Amino acid sequence: MKVLAEGQGELCAWMHPDEARRWMRDNKTRALVDKQVTIKEAVERYTKDGDYFAMGGFGHIRLSMNGIYEMIRQKRRNLVMAGKTSVHDVDILIGGGVVDRIDCAYAHGHELRGLSPSGRRATESGRVKIVAELSNAAFQWRFRAAAMGLPWYPARVMMGTDTFKYSSAKIVEDPFTGLPITLLPACYPDFAFIHVHRCDKYGNCQIDGTTMEDVELARAAKRLIITTEEIVDDEVITSEPGRTVIPHFIVDAVVESHYASHPGNMPGLYYSDEVHMAEWLSLSRTDEGVQEYMDKYVFGVNDFEEYLELVGGEERIDYLAKLERLEVPLDAPWARRGE
Amino acid sequence: MSYNTTELMACVSSRALEDRKSIFVGTGLPIIATMLAQKLHAPDLLVVFEAGGIGPKLPTIPISVGDSRTFHKAVMAASMDYVMGMAQAGLVDYGFLGAAQIDKYGNLNTTVIGDHDSPKVRLPGSGGANDLGSLCHKTITLMRHDKIRFVNKLDYLTTPGYLTGPEAREAAGLPSETGPHRVISQLGVMGFDEESKEMKLLQVHPGVTVDDVIENTGFEMLIGNVKETEPPTEEELRILREEIDPSGIVLGK
């Protein structure tokens, strides 16, 4: 195959497929083993400085915020984040000093809320480096390549653009059509967190609603930490096996974590907490504000339970559950003009 | 009835959407225009979101293209792999985009202002924009019109329009018969010349002249047979304000 062009971005998290197979053979237990640990243990055991990692969900939907806060608390440093539609997750992790490089499809933005002051400031000042650019589909299919044990996956995206030029992909002449086609390198993150609606103690997981990139990401990650709203009896899983989207034999740790997506949305259970998001967006306009936020919500509490109390406890969660069910109007302070 | 430019852009964009087609939609104004079209002339417009929501009955404006509203009473809650594969396979007719910069071939920048490695302003990046611009049959771009945004040369080419002109998309390997269809701004509606693939003014909004458009464009805009936009109707404005965005999150107050 003739290589027509090569992106100049840094190739991160790629492995030779045989090396990846050896990893999967030697490190992923096929047995039904109870994998429940605390978030503290999961972060200690499966994350380390300098790692390349990904967060499941969609940046502010179905987040493992307890994992994010714990990485900040344990002072993980110099991590590369897969900026695969990263929104609040990457913003907080940059603010918390954990992430200093991004493999970037989407970061520095908060969708409808506007741009992210904290993340932008870090990248514009050079504190955070963008190691490569790519598109969302490209990221998705990099995980798919890894999930399938392939060195790359072909796609008809990024061609002709600077997004390709700054990517770690290559364009080759497709031997079937004779046309140029993009080859996306497999991406095997050192670890990933994925928050799910329910799983059993072995890690067989169900997700309600869209799965985003998580089915493939789960298979691509070398270490997979599942946080779950609820641990259920394995009968719940085996009575409806068609609903299992992540099976136990690729899961390394299971952490039961109620409301762990807060302040993000957990489809079907609670909507995003826009008052809290507004507080972050407002405080994170300055480095001092970021520190104030971290001192209050991350270092000022011992665990996620205490954090939940601090953000309003059951009453707040009850309101967010009603908001999810469209029973109360949305209060989004960031949308009020002129403030 | 008076209206602001955001409301005007929502109405004009909504009229550009055809019934019984599929559309990949981004956050903000594109969603509002899509919801308006569904309530008026395009009830069977199939909406697709990049996180996997397909065919939802949008109850309110989603904050994210991945939040639970994007698959509220939907026909399918799928995945990014599924919907991006759908677009690559030819099942998505329109992509609805926004940008910080656009050039005469409809190429878009949503990545960076200034130099890539030492940016003046860092923007989110491609997200799904490059995918939509590569794979949908047609794209519609919605953005503010001024010389800072309608530029002769992009600081960074995130998403492909017609690239460098006729045949350039095909030569690059992008799917054939694809590319930018309309650009909608607060001044008018633009299309693209069939031969040269350069942007062409088709329509000016009430109170806007062709000269206003020329003065606010950083490249030479082709001028077609320019018509004047019909102002927003009372019904369009009522639906926008009362049903779609009652708190003015996107439309402003």
Characteristic key phrases:
heterodimer; A: 339 residues; alpha/beta; Glutaconate Coenzyme A-transferase; 7-stranded parallel β-sheet; 4-stranded antiparallel β-sheet; 13 helices; 13 strands; 33% helix; 17% strand; B: 253 residues; 8-stranded mixed β-sheet; two-stranded antiparallel ribbon
Structure explained in plain terms:
The complex is a heterodimer of chains A (339) and B (253). With 339 residues, chain A is an alpha/beta fold. Chain A has a single domain, classed as Glutaconate Coenzyme A-transferase (3-Layer(aba) Sandwich). Chain A is 33% helix and 17% strand. Chain A has 13 helices and 13 strands. Chain A has helices at 17-27, 39-46, 65-73, 88-95, 117-124, 136-147, 162-165, 214-220, 234-238, 274-283, 287-298, 304-310, 313-324, and strands at residues 3-6, 52-55, 79-83, 99-104, 129-133, 152-155, 170-173, 180-185, 191-196, 198-199, 205-206, 223-228, 253-256. In chain A, the strands form three sheets. A seven-stranded parallel sheet of chain A has the order 5-4-3-2-9-12-13, sandwiched between helices. Chain A has a four-stranded antiparallel sheet with strand order 1-7-8-6, covered by helices on one side. The mean pLDDT of chain A is 97. By secondary structure, chain B is an alpha/beta fold. Chain B has one domain (5-184, 231-244): Glutaconate Coenzyme A-transferase (3-Layer(aba) Sandwich). In chain B, 24% of the residues lie in helices and 21% in strands. Chain B has helices at 5-15, 29-39, 80-88, 129-135, 168-172, 210-215, 234-244, and strands spanning 22-25, 46-48, 53-54, 76-77, 94-97, 101-102, 108-109, 112-114, 119-122, 138-142, 180-184, 188-192, 199-204, 222-228. In chain B, the strands form four sheets. Chain B has an eight-stranded mixed sheet with strand order 2-1-5-10-11-12-13-14, with helices on both faces. In chain B, strands 3-4 form a two-stranded antiparallel sheet. In chain B, strand 12 and strand 13 form a beta hairpin. In chain B, helix 1 (5-15) packs across helix 2 (29-39) and helix 2 (29-39) crosses helix 7. The model of chain B has no long low-confidence stretch (mean pLDDT 97). At the A-B interface, helix 5, helix 6, strand 8 and helix 8 of A face helix 3, strand 9, helix 4 and helix 5 of B.
